[in-house]
Amino acid sequence: MDSDTTATKSHPHRRPPDTPFSADSAEHAPALHSTPRLRAGWWRALLAPGFGVLLLVLWDVVAQSGLYADFIVPSPRAVADRWWDLAGDGSLTRHMAVTLREVLVGLLAGVNAAFWSGYLIAKSRLVANILMPYLVALQAVPIVAIAPLLIIWFGPGFTSKVLICALLVFFPMLVNTVLGVRNIPSELRDLMEALESTPLQTFWYLELPASMPIVIGGLKVSATLSVIGAVVAEFVSASEGLGYLINFGRGTFDTPLVIAAVFTLTVVALALYGLASWLERLLLAWQNAGRSVHN
After folding, report:
1. I want to staple 233 with a disulfide (CB 3.0 to 4.6 A). Which of 95, 164, 208, 279 is the partner?
2. ∠ CA(199), CA(203), CA(206), 5° rounding?
3. CB 99 within 8 A of CB 243
4. CB–CB of 205/192 below 8 Å?
5. Which of 171, 170, 169, 155 is nearest to 236 (CA)?
6. pLDDT in tens, 10-64
7. How far is it, in rounded angstroms, from Cα 282 to Cα 219?
8. What is the model's pTM?
9. Res. 156 pLDDT band, cuts 50 70 90
């Protein structure tokens, strides 16, 4: 008995070297596994919306049960009607535009300041030893405690709200920038030195792209925190904005107004997070291209 026959008997699922593949089996083999994977993908895609529908149904059941007054637990329909009234008379758009403006300016200012501060801290131990204790101490103080001081110093207008928002997004972006720059492999830095690159070339061709995955992670966190910063500022002192609507609804026991404003804030935060995720895919497309080449 030759070696090929022995190998085939000892491993019944093993194809002998001289046995060609069947064209039909090769054509239909992927199809055997595609249907279960497709079904599993559909189930996973429906889990989050299904859970949301379940929460909505439970909310409606509790609201219709009569255990709580309408101003404590309003029905989803009452909240939807209140939201539609706000959207119909234009007040929702006006207040959302005010909050969104504060969020975007505060986010850009905080992220920009945090990135360059984090870069300097990562590059210089002296700067890190000087600044980090004070930055950590500033982060340890709740933003709610700092907000009244900023309102007193800079007034109740747009500037103080932007500063409060920027302070809240500053620290996550700072930490991620420091980690991203410090975690660049030393071999790559040695390579840039061997090529006699200037500091600007090292930053542009090595440090910026190599730290970008971690930096974008900080941007995602900061994008969601920026909404919180704007709302905290509007809680302290404001005459417009979604935070003002929540305060006004709380004072007048208009719970549907409060919930409608909270849902609108949630949509704004999710939109900002989605924008950061899109930016991540755009800026890190070279990573996926590199993986596909190696695979």
Report:
1. 164
2. 120
3. yes
4. yes
5. 155
6. 444 444 444 444 444 444 444 445 556 656 667 777 777 888 889 889 988 988 8
7. 14
8. 0.79
9. confident
